[in-house]
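Notes from the pairing session

We agreed to fold both candidates in a single pass and log them together. This is the raw record for the first candidate, unedited. Please don't reformat it; downstream parsing expects exactly this layout.

Candidate A
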Amino acid sequence: MSRVRSASLPPAGLPGIDPSWSRLVDVPERAIGSAPDAPAAASGTRTNRWHILDNAADLAELGATPVGTILCVHGNPTWSYLWRKTVAAATDAAAAGRPAWRVIAVDQLEMGFSERTGLARPLARRVQDLADLTDALAVDGPVVTFGHDWGGVISLGWAVDHPDQLAGVMLLNTAVHQPDDVPIPAALRLALSVLRTGTVTTTAFLDTTLAIAHPRLPSDVRRAFRSPYLEADRREGIGAFVADIPVDASHESAAELERIAGAVARLTVPALMMWGPRDPVFSDRYLDDLQRRMPHADVHRFETAGHLIAEDVEYAGPALDWLGDRFGSAPGPAVPAASADAASETSAALDDIVASETVPPMWHHLETLAHSPEPAVVDMVAGPGGSPRIVSWALLSTRVHQIARGLVALGVKPGDRVSLLVPPSADLTAVVYACLRIGAIVVVADAGLGLRGLSRAVRGARPDHIISEVPGLTVARAFGWPGQRISVATLPAVSARALNVTTSLAGVIRAGKAAHELELPHPPAPSAVAAVLFTSGSTGPAKGVVYTHGQLTALRDALSAQYDVGVGTGLVAGFAPFALLGPALGARSVTPDMNVTSPRTLTARAVADAAAEADATVVFLSPAAIANVVATADELSTDQRAALAGVRTFLSAGAPVSEALLTAASELMPNAEPHTPYGMTEGLLMADISLDGIRSSTASLAADTPTDAAAGSAVGGVPVGRPTATTRVRIAPLDPAGAVGADLTDAAGVTGEIVVSAPHLKSHYDRLWITNRLADAHSTQGERWHHTGDVGHLDGEGRLWVEGRLQHIIVTADGVVTPVGIEQAVERVDGVRRAAAVGVGPRGAQQIVVVVELSVRQRRSRLAEPALAAAVREAAASGGHEVAAVLVAATLPTDIRHNSKIDRAALARWADGILRGGRMVSP
């Protein structure tokens, strides 16, 4: 039997804890399953002393009446210290006049500074222990439980046993079910294999848990977590917790875990799950399971967080925001919650209006042109012998229907997620439209994210099926991605088994042919989710952007109307989304010979050959691709120049495009009108401007530069034109400290965050509740708005100008400075190819540093020579900006997808290190 140790208060001086929160509570122990009002004596049990954190006294001193109680339950090997930020945030919120929440954070018996009873406490006992405590504290609801790790299970046990008191549940990484066909996590298997040595005799388990925090825990916080467990006999509870993990159905806690897991699926109260996917114990597999049980839950995945998510990220503020959104000032009776990770009622209603049954679906032209021998899709690199692969409308339509039936025969259902790791090609196009037709959700995370970004995206998207070429299947096998696997090519049997491949795309087609009489599912409703498209990851981990069928058809129609693209149009698409939209537009689309992961490798000859093959009148290229196309123009033959002369519309988007670059491109396509659409993955077409429009805009700017009344700085940037026919644009002004204001304006010359509204705007971000809340801050019933994260202003003619990204603004002692205007001025300096303006120093007193990439490739990074530095400073001074330092980088870091979006955040960190005397390495 373990040694009995009394409860005690924590030592003084632990960071983040107010001593007034600590309490010792004597709690009668009742038999498992006892009624709340059963007397302890009748059960023949004992009294245990608990240590808890409780802000009730603080709320009383503030005169604040709690609207409810947040019951926080830690896991192993932490203690109530884990929840100190929740206690502090709730107390501060009450002091600020917001709804007051009482927070009770427990030290479970045998853990933290609670009593060591020396008795075994399996899961059912711990669930009863928590009920005994809340009874002793006279907690009568409404209660929102908040659990982490094994404390998540225990908190859910309390939740399902107290339906009359329960108002909601919040969870950090935890699990309620272990799949029968999946071994328990390796970290727990290791802990079980060296149970007493690793958890009790030594501090190995405790130290390992604390070591996996991201970033590394400060030493004083690490000491605070260790403080209850300094002696071996105070670590008995750590070992007992690990031993209580049900490894099979015969374990004494297996039945209780199964009871809780089943009951959780019947909960209808609002739920919030905040998750760290870098957790080696509770991976996304367990989040997926919890979401299946509580599909109404709001979910936010913090890509950089792991097991100790409460230490890795700011979670307490979002938790209180969620409580405020869900309950306001008074939690009411439990009602089913609407999820922020499903299309909102507003979004669904708008989608049904926008894309009613009278609006042709995305596959409309595949039906109307089903017998046409004319080319629909052309792959410039996929055909035999190096010749283009040409797919007619008739063949494409046939293949789409065969793949659709084959997928249904293989068990793909409406609402299933199908991750497509297929390069832009006729194969990808056919699979996309087959999935759309049967109501499966297309997940597109392209190779342009890089291996690490791609892996994060696919795992986070939780696909039910993966269709991929061998490299993607290999990564899926190595990283344990979920989902049935289908190979694009037919693989040898040995390879297929090694990669867990069910069948090939050819096998899907054969299954579809065999099932030619199979009736396809009813076409999906406009409000049904159609696709999850991932952002480029240029300003953080790539985000999954969810579109409904109604929103995709609205996007199609917006593109068609803006650029007169329709049946018979030849479209050269150097950017995958536009290649996939070709069939929806009825356009003949051709993908040029290029490496999609490196757009800057596209040559003028490749574009010209693609234009000739498709008799193209529309060309879409990324800014990085244009730069290389212009640079390789001398290689064009007479016939290739003639093909480019047939282009009537030239589009480029994805990053700011300079007037000089557009002018150079227009010389290659002399009969084309150059346009730069403004948009993002969340809304691919929000505004548009032509080259002539850019010239007139910049001329107006030169003649009359407005001043931003909020920040006090001259406004500049890149003109992106007027909103499209169905788009509205507003500005959320920035204050002098760089904070985004609550009001929206369409006044001229006011710099702030760009906020847009359109029928073809995305529905929401996938499993990013916090991001959704910020992005949708101005959305109301019947009106969807999206905060883009871009900073800009409207001019007196109603044209939109982009000045940079919100996270890249520079906040000096004089106010806000946006980077793009400075960069454009510097890029006019002789010898400068690209420039980036970043802020160095504390926010509010930042200094402007300009980093340049020169036209002549440099072998190393360095401080700029005096003449270059002087020229850069003079260029910036023309806009009223003083530059503190000028650095030369061999190459500016950009995103992989576009090769155009400069990573200013990385450059700022690099420049700060250099100017502090660090090594002169490349950024």
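Candidate B (folded immediately after A)
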Amino acid sequence: MKRLTAKLNGLTVLKWLIYLFFFVFLLVPLFSILLVSFTGQPVNIFGSFTSQKIFDSTIKKLSNISVEAYTSIFSEGNSYFAALMNSLKLGTGVAVLVTVIVLPIAYAFARTKMPFKSFFAALCTIPLIMPTFISSHAFVLMFGKTGWVTQLYHSFGGEGVLFDVQSMLGIVLVQVFFFFPYALWPMVAAFKICDVTLEEASQNLGAKSWYTFLRVTLPLAVPGIVSSMLLIFTVSFSDFGTPIILAPKELNLIVVESYREIAGFFNWAGSAVLTVIMLLVAAFFFWLQRLVIKGREYGTISGKPTKQKLNDHKGTIAGLTIYTFLVMLVPILALGSIFLSSIATTWGHHALPDGYTMSHYKTIFSTSGKNIWNSMVLAAGTLVLSVVISTFVSYFVVRRGSGGLDFVSSIPLIVPGIALGIALIQTFNTAPIHLTGTALLLIIAYTIRRMPYMIRSTMSSMMAIRKDIEEAAVSLGASSLIAAITVIGPLMLPGIAAGAILVFVTVIKETSISILLAPTEWAPMSLAVFQNLLRGEYYTACAMAILIIVIVIILQALAKKITKDQLY
């Protein structure tokens, strides 16, 4: 008994409560949606343990398990198969294009004396602060039939449009110009860690700069480049905001199809099958990315530190500077288009609005104040839950070597938002745990979706804290739990603050979870913008979008300031 009591200390109980949270709200929903894909009917797992009637019904459904839903996908003319192929083509195309476009920029940042690097780095945040469905609407404002770029094109004698923005090409372009920062910084890091002595040796042997880049520098950066490409594929494949705005009816994409099946037709079987396929594809490419990072190491070991010699060739620097600015100009113009639309009286007949007004901002504060309040409350609730769970997950992983928690907490990285939403709806749609349509389930979904980012932030802070500090507190009589809270906790504040604001920012922008799970009385700002776009209330939608972007910018600046103040 004493041995059992000794094991059941505060930290142990807390650890198992965290395991229970992941089991109830992540593992069971994913397993439940897997069962539905085989039975074709909703399965109430929790109800099966509390009601004999539900248990008998579940057994009956499980007795009719079939793989017909999966085999039928490969039948001729199946829309699901077309959606899968189109999504794979989209992800592959975006990944390749982003890699090709970003490669010169990453090299410029890492290996040249390109001016205005800080300015360009700041511009790179613009694509990250704009939700993709807002970016998609910005492209409509620019390249649509009445877009201002189209108007300029007509003024120079052009006819029609430059390209059909509501097409596969339009989706690809939006994702390329708004996902490239995800690949940029890993590729910059890949170029920076390359061993410069190998490049110097190549040049000393008479190789030209371009030959050294192609045969030495580029191969050394291959692991980082391939890893970035796989990451972009996963982000593109899982993106919901862009296709839901720009995909025409005849273009089937898996995220849109799964949303339509559950939201439009209440087809549990179809949505479950598509959800499982999304999970499998995302998991495979996530595993492939990890394999590339782990399995291909191109670094060299040297006891002598080397200083990188940055490329200062004037022609190269001028060309890379202009190229970098042109790539980053597209998100700037998109943001400017959203802002102009938010203050326009009417816009569509000329390149610029016909007039300007601030009435749209007055409208959103008078009619959508509830949405703004909802976003703040939901983000705050998510923040509290994320901070508590993520901090202790980091502690157990780093200090106690809990590989199980590390694995479970990483699962959300491979779960697309639309897939998680469908899984949660299916699991908590009936008694005994009926949470669908409540703010609580929305907060839990936000927490699970964004927690990995918080965990990575707190884990890096945890690794920097010496273990003997905690041991000193324990030796003075404090329990392990008290030592973790009162000693380790305050030292982790920089990582907690940075991760917390990151969670807050991403929750404010979250779209797919909000669209599926948010009840009317708890609709956040992102959902209000999306609904306004669908209703054709474009000006108020843009005003609300600008408000979201301003909040995100302020919070990111605050995170940067807090982190610097704490660390330096």
